[in-house]
Specification:
Blueprint lengths: L22 E2 L3 E3 L4 E3 L2 E9 L7 E13 L3 E6 L20 E2 L14 E2 L1
Antiparallel strand pairs: 1-8, 2-6, 3-4, 4-5, 5-6, 5-7
Amino acid sequence: MNNDKLELLPNVNVSVRINSQERSNVLVIPRGTVASEGGKRFVYVVKSTGLGVGKKILEKREIQLGIADSVHYQVVSGLDAKDLVALPGDVELHDGMRVKIINTESASLQGHQDVQ
């Protein structure tokens, strides 16, 4: 590292952040929503059953991921921005599981424009 102006003092600790990649206007999801199985990555998407108002189930869906930061993954394919992805909780999620939506705010990343 060049220190010609002597702005960096010896033996001083500093915190730095190095962005190796950055993309704007991408679809991102929390790392905690992504599971792996057999080398493939997937999430559980909330779907309507068509059997009445409020009847929802989980659908296991394979996705392809791009770059990531410490808390998010970029989704390259397999999800649409309108898809509602289930967050894991006290109960293990599985395909076809019946669910009740309590809060969609915590899963919403509207306004999150990039992953670094």
